């Protein structure tokens, strides 16, 4: 009996946005390591599991990043880097 279906969307059906986004962080004067620490934190995993809202996560991130880091910019860049792999979708359809 099938009880669970799991989907690995990041890096499979969609591009692995985090690594592309981290490349851009230097343009804003943000330390890539500090941003990566936020995006690989326990809280980030909770966000992706649906255990934490976007608002709560980014409020938490703001308190854990230097004052001059704009979490709106980080969030936008992270989301904008996801691209659907049309060929993979075609193969799986």
Description of the structure:
With 93 residues, the protein is mostly helical. Helices cover 55% and strands 0% of the residues. The two termini are 23 Å apart. The model has no long low-confidence stretch (mean pLDDT 81). The protein has one domain. It is globular. It has helices at residues 17-24, 32-39, 42-49, 54-63, 71-80, 86-92. It is built from 6 helices and no strands.
The SS-based structural class is mainly alpha
Bin the helical content: 40-55%
Rounded to the nearest angstrom, the radius of gyration is 15 Å
- N-to-C SSE series? HHHHHH
**Average pLDDT, all residues:** 81
- End-to-end gap: 23 Å
Quick one: how many beta strands?
0
Shape: globular
**Beta-strand percentage range:** under 5%
Reported for the largest beta sheet, the result is: none
Overall domain count: 1
Quaternary structure type? single chain
Q: Helix count?
A: 6
The low-confidence parts are none
């Amino acid at each position: 009996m099938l009880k669970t279906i799991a989907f690995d969307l990041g890096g499979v059906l969609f591009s692995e946005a985090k690594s592309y986004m981290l490349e851009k962080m230097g343009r804003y004067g943000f330390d890539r390591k500090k941003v990566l620490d936020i995006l690989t934190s326990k809280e980030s995993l909770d966000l992706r599991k649906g255990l934490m809202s976007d608002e709560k996560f980014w409020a938490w991130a703001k308190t854990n990043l230097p004052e001059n880091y704009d979490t709106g910019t980080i969030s936008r860049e992270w989301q904008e880097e996801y691209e659907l792999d049309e060929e993979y979708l075609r193969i799986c359809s």
